Automatic annotation (TrEMBL):
Protein name per Swiss-Prot or TrEMBL: RNA helicase
GO molecular function: ATP binding; hydrolase activity; RNA helicase activity
Naturally occurring in which organism (per UniProt): Manacus vitellinus
Stored Pfam families: TUDOR
Biological classification of the source: Eukaryota, Metazoa, Chordata, Craniata, Vertebrata
Record's keyword terms, sorted: ATP-binding, Helicase, Hydrolase, Nucleotide-binding, Repeat
Amino acid sequence: QVYVVFSEELKCWCRAVFQSAQGHAVRDQLRCFLVDYAKYSLVESDNIRVPVGVFSKLPYRAKKCSLYCTKPVTLHIDFCENTAKIGPARRWDAAAVRYFRDLLK
């Protein structure tokens, strides 16, 4: 379900899909994914509206995606045998993420 929320950070109304609720002492906030800006944000419950008419049928400007069949790798160094090999990793390291973002720019 897509809703319309006011983002304090962006200072505008945008469409969002909700992820989870977080209760605070002052106000309830909801964690949501802003579908037109591809970013996560906390939104106060007072700033949520139901979309009307054609507005809800507009295509999103941003979409979640992933690289097909691309898995993280890292350099494994064996000091005893004085060798270095590239092998699988559990997650992307910071240098690989920075390099990929530079490629996209």
